[in-house]
Specification:
It contains twelve helices and 26 strands. The protein is an alpha+beta fold. A hairpin with a 4-residue loop joins strand 4 and strand 5 (59-63).
């Protein structure tokens, strides 16, 4: 079918047959546009339907959407490509943007503007692909009531509201004989929690996804999901960025997961990869964390870990947060119990304190949960000196004794209080804080951190040089009034020298 309604400069030839569209640019015979072979979500290009095209040079041409959505997506890609606050390791999780181009539309309606993007699967022979729509809410704040109602129905009918994400589409490659398993989208949109879990397992299994009589063996989980370059490692990097970034809010955005199963069968690297796609509904973050996307991302990571992933200290290849995972078939209740905080720590030191920190390395059940725990022991007048945790807030519970606890905020404003047995105090993430035994008996506290690796930054010992004038300067206006009966062990000065307000 020759389109004669074009000038010679834009003359093109459009062939349509059943499920394929081939578009030749008569000005440049080297370029051939075709319908993507591996599209699993969105509108498929066909005769009479507007959809994306690809070429043989590794480019993906996405037609700009109407109602301003296309313009918004162009604006996002343009701004994102020049945004200096995006780390390189995060930038590579987004498709490369090559600008826009006018092309003959796949529906035969004439010339139409297209985004020119990196074709994520162009270098792969038989890729397995999984498209995950992120967020419990897929509608953006400025959307019309009609659009919100439409999105809300989809979110409720699927798993978006309950899981924070839903599977939009996928194709799993079996082998040369079985080819691909690519279920109908209506079936995928009705997936339950169990269906989603099964899909993630089949995605990395060696047995056929069509075999309903056998359980997915997850034979390739350690290769695809695990390892320093696996999908989970990439998702964790993305999560770390979303915990801090306030530039954008990503509504109705998807994460595409892709790998080459055939490469695994040949003993080669399957090159597992994630890419964020679909940015027609991205809005400005305005200094606020994107909790909608972040919540879905945390849920997705947990789901891929199959809810629990205790560390294994033996030889394994499936690494999560730096620790190898146990085989799920070998997990038992003791993995979720520790007795390492029963015994008090050794307080026979200059500061009269001991902190025992337990992480996933010692307590397997903590792995991937974003938690660590600690026990603090303070002899009389014992002090845990000023320090901070760059990656965690700390919830401090006094189980015995009387403790003075406090922290200094970013305006150098001190906050301190006396804690008795049963009291709880929170030390915000990254702020300098301390605790000191303000009673006449030993004191014990238990802490929970909201990070698997909270980190500790301590003030140099030199700042606690045992000279009265130095100590008084450091403590002036911070601890007086609460420590009339306390002595700082190891210091040569008396209480009255330190805290006498008349001096």
């Amino acid at each position: 079918m020759v389109n004669n309604d074009r000038s010679p400069e834009t003359l093109s030839l459009l062939f349509a047959r059943e499920d394929r569209v081939l578009l030749f640019d008569l000005q440049n015979f080297q370029t051939m546009f075709k319908v993507p072979d591996h599209q699993v979500a969105g509108h498929n290009a066909s005769a009479g339907v507007l959809g994306p095209l690809v070429d043989d040079a590794g480019n993906f041409y996405k037609p700009l959407q109407s109602d301003g959505r296309g313009a918004k997506e162009v604006a996002f890609y343009t701004g994102f490509s020049t945004e200096t606050r995006i780390p390189d390791e995060i930038r590579k999780l987004f498709p490369v943007f090559h600008g826009t181009r006018e092309l003959e539309a796949s529906d035969g309606s004439g010339m139409h503007p297209h985004l020119v993007l990196e074709d994520i699967v162009s270098s792969r022979t038989n890729p397995s692909i999984l498209d995950v729509k992120m967020g419990s809410s897929t509608w953006y704040p400025e959307a019309s009531e009609q659009y919100i109602a439409k999105c809300l129905k989809k979110d409720r009918d699927g798993t978006s509201l309950t899981l924070g994400f839903r599977i939009s589409g996928f194709q799993f490659y079996g082998n040369k004989e079985t080819g691909y398993w690519k279920p109908d989208r209506k079936l995928v949109n009705a997936f339950t929690h169990d269906d989603v879990r099964s899909a993630f397992r089949k995605f990395v299994s060696s047995n056929s996804p069509l075999d309903s009589d056998s359980e997915p063996d997850c034979a390739y989980a350690s290769t695809v999901y695990g390892g320093p370059d696996g999908i989970l490692s990439q998702l964790l990097k993305l999560k770390s960025w979303f915990e801090d970034q306030t530039i954008y809010h990503f509504y109705s955005c998807s994460i595409m997961m892709v790998y080459d199963k055939e490469s695994i069968l040949k003993g080669e690297n399957p090159n597992p990869q994630i890419k964020l796609v679909d940015f027609a509904h991205v809005v400005e973050g305005k200094g606020i964390i994107d909790h909608n996307f972040l919540g879905g991302l945390c849920s997705l990571i947990k789901f891929l870990n199959d809810d629990t992933c205790p560390t294994s200290l033996g030889k394994q290849t499936f690494f999560i947060n730096g620790f190898p995972c146990k085989n799920p078939n070998n997990i038992s209740a003791p993995d979720f119990k520790t007795s390492k905080l029963i015994q008090p720590g050794d307080t026979d030191n200059f500061f009269g304190s001991a902190v025992t920190l337990v992480t996933a390395a010692e307590f397997p059940g903590l792995n991937t949960l974003g938690l660590s725990v600690a026990r603090t022991d303070l002899r009389v007048d014992g002090l845990v000196r000023l320090h901070s945790h760059p990656r965690a807030s700390e919830m401090f519970f006094v189980s015995k004794g009387i403790v003075l606890a406090g922290f200094i905020d970013t305006l150098n404003q001190p906050f301190q209080t006396i804690l008795k047995e049963g009291d709880v105090f929170v030390f915000p993430r990254g702020l300098l804080h301390f605790c000191l035994n303000a009673g006449y008996d030993i004191a014990t506290g238990l802490s929970v951190f909201n990070s698997q690796n909270p980190g500790v930054v301590s003030i140099s010992d030199a700042m606690f040089e045992p000279k009265p004038d130095v100590i008084k300067k450091l403590t002036e206006g911070f601890v007086p009034g609460h420590l009339r009966n306390a002595t700082l062990s190891g210091f040569s000065c008396s209480n009255s020298e330190l805290f006498d307000e008349d001096k």
